[in-house]
Amino acid sequence: MRGAAANAFQPAMLCTLLWLALATSAPSDTLAEIRARGFFIWGADEEGGGPYVFPDPGDPERRIGFEVDLARELARELSGELGRTIEARFAQSPWDKLPDLLKTGRIDLVLNGYEWTEERSRDMASTLPYYVYELQLLARADRSDASWDWLASPPQKRVGVLGGSAAENYLAERHPGLELVSYDGNTNAMGDVVSGRLDATLQDLPIALFYRADFPALAFAGAPVAPGRYVIFVRREDQTLRAALDRAILALRASGTLRAIDERYGIWTEAQHDPELLSLPEGARPSSADSSASGFLARYATTLLASAGMTVLLSVLSFPLAIVLGVLVALGRLYGPRLVAWPLTVYVEVLRGTPLMLQLFVIFYVFPNAGLRLDALTAGVLGLAINYSAYEAEIYRAGLQAVPRGQMEAALALGMSRRLALRRIVLPQAVRIVLPAVTNDFIALFKDTSVCSVITVVELTKRYNIAAMTHPADVLPLAALAAALYLVMSYPLSLLSARLERALR
User: Fold this and answer.
1) CATH number of 19-130+231-273
2) For residue range 377-401, what is the model confidence (pLDDT) as tens digits?
3) pTM for the complete prediction?
4) CATH T-level topology, domain 293-504
5) Angle, to 10 degrees, between the axis of helix 338-353 and the axis of helix 293-335?
6) Given pLDDT bands bounded at 50, 70 and 90, which one contains residue 6?
7) Which has fewest Cβ within 10 Å: 263, 300, 433, 463?
């Protein structure tokens, strides 16, 4: 996990490759290809959970969800229209990367609770809505005063939202005074309301309805607001496929199949009858945003710089702790008694053998059950420091072993104690040996801070993902700006390392 996370954020290169693939590999007539091959591929994120796409509790190898059922029914409708059996095949992808995967031609359609927005309609072609969602505010059931008026009243409330979602955009526009906490999933935000970390959470109504029984300590606060539309997205050039899917959706709506699917998962609402919401606007209005370089920087530079500051803060707080812990662990393993060395060996192997993301989850979500409740920043710093301490321990252990044994023997012969010899003779030489590797780890830590987004820390990578989801047309310049910020933060460390190496030589 550590190596993967260190290289996970290469936004400029990744997005450039995705868009080049779009230009060279997008099918010219996807509907004809679907008929020829006998299946279409729909993309979704199984990690998002119910009621969309999730593992069957009785058979984890099987996927269920109202969108799984919808994809199957769409395949049945296309089979009748195309005159041959068509299958619906699922493709897993992170939710925010589904549009990029669509553009490469690796999937034929995006079907995963994607809201229709003008921004997305300029970038992709959308079908008619297959579900009308609303936004529902959730608070603890023991808060009898919880309502929209309560949310806007002092003191400032902390509200959990799915990053890049309609809920986040709605609160940012209508209630700018709130402290919004961005999550990668839905149930974590609900759990944090129950535990008291959050005052409330704003969720899509189908999510609130589906998980209501799992969170009896939560209650609906106020009426649902801001109705919107879930649609299927295809590539802009796939107009024949879009038209065929529209016909299939209309047929499923007329036959009552859509309602039956929604009722099966407990998410049918009266909003599904609204004829205005069951259609789409005639077309997206031209963007009023300034497309110049100065306009782009005015929109994003401040927020990305602030998030880069969080990345720096996480790094400079956690890495010194990692070094101190790593040195102590290395010394304990090399020079401590066996009763100390053996547990430290287990410590190193467990931390190196488990993902950083899992360790952060344990610190942030499991430790509170044992009475240790940490805020997101503290948990992020602690998680990074503990994870990297295992790698620093191995680096310093190698450095200590590289110092000739005669150095220690000479120091002891001169009357130094073992502790003094380690501090004055062995450690300084080991530091010089390990300096390049330690610097490399510090640079890697800058990128690994992106994993802290799973515990609601909004650093540079998370802010980039949110902005790219909200404004897909700006994804390439956003990626370039974020990559440039990472380079600006990490390159001086390489220069400093080279200078220290020359000085110590």
Assistant:
1) 3.40.190.10
2) 999 999 999 999 999 999 999 988 8
3) 0.75
4) MetI-like fold (1.10.3720)
5) 150
6) very low
7) 263
Crossing angle of helices 475-504 and 11-25, in 10° steps, is 140
- Residue 56, φ and ψ in degrees, nearest 5: -70, 125
Residue 10 CA: distances (Å) to CA of 2, 316, 391, 461, 480: 15, 22, 23, 10, 9
Buried b (16+ CB within 10 A) or exposed e, 177-187: ebebbbbbbbb
**Residue 386 contacts residue 351 (beta carbons within 8 Å):** yes
How far apart are alpha carbons 475 and 12 in whole angstroms? 9
Burial of 495 (0-12, 13-18, 19+ CB in 10 A): exposed
- Which tens digit of pLDDT belongs to each residue from 169-204? 899 999 988 999 988 777 889 999 999 999 999 999
Fold of 134-227: D-Maltodextrin-Binding Protein; domain 2 (3.40.190)
| CB-count burial class (<10 Å; 0-12, 13-18, 19+) for 286 | exposed
Q: What is the pLDDT of residues 421-447, one digit of tens each?
A: 888 888 888 888 888 888 888 888 988
Q: What is the largest CA-CA distance in the chain?
A: 94
Q: What is the DSSP string of 317-384?
A: HHHHHHHHHHHHHHHHHHHS-HHHHHHHHHHHHHHHHS-HHHHHHIIIIIGGGGT----HHHHHHHHH
Q: What is the pLDDT of residue 472?
A: 66
Query: How would you label 47-67 residue by residue, b for 16+ Cβ within 10 Å and e otherwise?
Result: ebbbbbbbeeeeeeeebbbbb
Distance between CA atoms of 61 and 280, rounded to whole angstroms?
A: 36
User: Which of 150, 161, 152, 224 has its CA nearest to residue 193?
Assistant: 161
| Separation CA 142–CA 132 (nearest Å) | 30
Helix axes 427-448, 376-402, angle to 10 degrees: 140
> Which residues make beta-bridge pairs with 64?
54
**Spatial distance between the Cα atoms of 102 and 233, rounded to a whole number of angstroms:** 9
User: Which amino acid is present at 462?
Assistant: K
The candidate with the shortest Cα–Cα distance to 183, out of 441, 1, 361, 373, is 361
55: which strand partners?
63
Lookup: tokens for 181: 């906490």
Q: Side chain identity at 90, as an amino acid letter?
A: F
Name beta bridge partners: 202: 137
Residues found in the chain: 505
